[in-house]
Write a structure and sequence with these properties.
The radius of gyration is 36 Å and the shape is elongated. Helices cover 65% and strands 9% of the residues. A 6-stranded mixed β-sheet has the order 6-7-8-3-9-10, with helices on both faces. Strands 2-1-4-5 form a 4-stranded antiparallel β-sheet, with helices on one face. By secondary structure, the chain is an alpha/beta fold. The protein binds 2'-deoxycytidine-5'-triphosphate (DCP) and magnesium ion (MG).
Length: 614
């Protein structure tokens, strides 16, 4: 991927402030409003308690230490201790409540999002990177929690502090307060100008980092291909570029950051120095006591903190808005395939399948993928779909499974329109074996049981025996309890296919759909698969997207699909007999040569290679 492509994959990190979005986010807090109200009170109490510290200090100095009154000092010490303990208690309650509420909120949101994703139609998943969908369920949800958790604390505690401090400053001494405010414009400049620059800098760092991750993901997943084509050096160079970008982004962020804190320090020191100087003169003139001046400078130091903290929170609010918008975009996407009003369950079927004037395309303004498809298949028949790649074979299957609805025409099973019956009642009577058998992490038994959760161990073993999968399963010491790994990576492609067959057989469907694997397996597995298919097909209506000549020859009907149309149909011999027929052509070009290859492969395996070569 080029840099530009990485850039394109970036999602917006911040949004302009949007009141509607905020309201919708806050709706998730409604179930927890009591806890949040309690947290707010506790946070405010904590802030107020902290504000008493400088005042206690001035009391100890002016009324205790200076006049030499030990009783005042003792009282202040005890009060100090009590307030600190109360503050710690408030902190304890706050952490407890907010974390629990935050986790509950996260739980709700994650669960809602996952549930929604499970039901979304395939069209939604077409062309959406998996990584991005995952990021929404994890990172974006986390961002919102972060806002509610630490953002809320900052806003409440700092707002209370800010208001409290300003009032105290002016109550203590108006002239000193006005003097201190002289440096406020400077601080405002830091907050309004420098801070955003620093934040942009850190945002660039995060982008550079996610580019590195994306590159790592791609290169490591594809390492086999990279090494096979000697792309190591090219990969190293492009990684170096990303690595450099990260370095530059980081140093850029630091350049902004390194300006901020010294400036804040200098301004703060200037303010305090002014106040100390003026305060000292007032002390000498007996206008004010030493304790007040010390308390005043203490308050002043605390004054800068909320200003910068609140600006920090604001940028967090904007990030959370971007996250919320992404999450809501998913939640607002409705599943396309929904049960019609008053849909009834499909009764147990015999397996007659009809397609009536079907025209279909994946996207509204794309070209038609299927054009005027018509056929009826009687129960128990086997149909082989053949045709060039991209012809529309899988698309026919997609309509039969009702993964998509056609724009025109109807799909009928036993005379019931698919669009008018309940979706689960249709899919539960059809079994699908994909071209790339997909196994889930877990044991072999778990994977076979996937199609019927209430199946017993005997049922599972019977299914595996019927498709001859037990032969390789029994070779494992742990047999059916053998772990297949993520996507079944611990076992071979052919073995994965046999397990998918067992899975389909266990479901005992009336209609079976097989997307045959093109990859050739060894001749022994090939034979096992052939026999397995024979068992599988018996008494069921079967659609096979076929690549093996043997499968095709055995089919009751062959549909030759080209460019979205059924251009020929009939039995193998009938179609071959048609002069200039598409099937005859296809047969000459593909299957005949494949068949020879297969026989050569089988012969090689049996050690008679020389004979063939002769
Ligand atoms: N198509 C699409 N969007 C999808 C899937 C497919 O636009 N989500 C397009 C690509 C093809 C056409 O539809 O041009 C037909 O695709 P099929 O998957 O139905 O093609 P086949 O199954 O016949 O091809 P193959 O033998 O390669 O599997
Ligand atoms: Mg296909």
């Amino acid at each position: 991927m080029s840099d530009e492509q990485y850039e394109e994959l970036q999602e917006v990190e911040q949004r302009p402030f949007d009141y509607g979005l905020l309201k919708r986010m806050l709706r998730y807090t409604i179930p927890y409003r009591k806890q949040l109200a309690l947290a707010t009170v506790v946070i405010a109490i904590g802030s107020i308690l902290r504000l008493t510290e400088p005042y206690l200090l001035r009391t100890a100095i002016d009324l205790g230490i200076t006049p030499g009154n030990m009783r005042v000092v003792n009282t202040v010490a005890i009060l100090w201790l009590v307030f600190q303990l109360l503050g710690a208690g408030a902190e304890y309650v706050r952490i407890h409540i907010l974390n629990r509420t935050g986790q509950n909120l996260l739980y709700d949101m994650r669960q809602e999002l996952f549930t929604h994703l499970q039901w979304l139609s395939l069209r939604f998943y077409d062309g959406r990177p998996v990584g991005r969908i995952m990021a929404r369920v994890t990172n974006d949800v986390e961002t919102i929690n972060d806002l509610i958790n630490s953002g809320l604390v900052t806003i409440i505690s700092q707002a209370v502090s800010l208001v409290g401090i300003v009032i105290i400053l002016f109550v203590v001494n108006v002239r000193l307060a006005l003097l201190a405010m002289l440096v406020v414009p400077g601080m405002a400049w830091v907050v309004v100008r420098l801070r955003p620059r620093m934040e942009t800098g850190w945002r660039n760092v995060r982008k550079a980092n996610s580019n590195i991750n994306a590159n790592l993901n791609e290169t490591i997943t594809g390492i086999r291909v990279s090494q096979a084509f000697c792309r190591e050096n090219t990969n190293i160079l492009s990684f170096e570029k990303l690595n450099n970008n990260y370095y530059d982004a980081f140093m850029g962020a630091i350049r902004a950051e390194v300006l901020i804190w010294p400036t804040v320090d200098v301004l703060g020191t200037v303010g305090s120095a002014l106040v100390l100087w003026a305060g000292a003169r007032m002390v000498l003139n007996d206008v004010i006591t030493v304790g007040y001046v010390l308390a005043f400078t203490d308050y002043l130091f605390r004054f800068w903190e909320p200003i910068s903290a609140i600006s920090r929170v604001y940028s967090r609010v904007l990030s959370a808005m971007a996250s919320a918008e992404r999450i809501f975009e998913y939640l607002d996407t409705q599943p396309e395939i929904l049960d019609a009003e008053g849909a009834q369950p499909l009764p147990p079927i015999k397996g007659q399948v009809t397609m009536e004037n079907i025209s279909f395309r994946y996207k509204e303004d794309d070209r038609w993928v299927l054009k005027d498809i018509n056929f009826t298949i009687q129960p128990g028949q086997t149909v082989a779909l053949v045709g060039p790649t991209g012809a529309g074979k899988t698309s026919i299957i997609n309509l039969l499974m009702r993964f998509y609805d056609p724009q025109q025409g109807r799909v009928l099973i036993d005379g019931h329109d698919l669009a008018q019956v309940q979706l689960p009642s249709v899919r539960s009577q059809i079994a699908l074996v994909l071209q790339e058998s997909f196994l889930f992490s877990g044991t072999i038994a778990d994977n076979i049981r996937y199609s019927r959760l209430d199946a017993s161990q005997e049922d599972i073993e019977r299914a595996a025996q019927a498709v001859q999968a037990d032969r390789f399963i029994m070779k494992y010491a742990d047999g059916y309890a053998h772990e297949v790994g993520e996507r079944g990576s611990n076992i071979s492609v052919g073995q994965r296919q046999l397990i998918s067959f067992a899975r389909a057989l266990l479901a005992d469907p009336r209609i079976l759909i097989l997307d045959e694997a093109t990859s050739s397996v060894d001749s022994q597995t090939e034979r096992a698969i052939q026999e397995a298919m024979h068992t599988l097909l018996e008494g069921r209506t079967t659609f096979i997207i076929a690549h093996r000549l043997s499968t095709i020859q055995r089919a009751d009907t062959i549909f030759v699909i080209e460019d979205g149309r059924i251009v020929e149909q009939g039995r193998h011999e009938e179609l071959l007999a048609m002069p200039e027929g598409r099937y005859a052509h296809l047969y000459q070009r593909q299957f005949a040569s494949w068949e020879i290859q297969r026989q050569v492969g089988a012969a090689e395996a049996e050690g008679c290679r020389d004979i063939i070569v002769e």
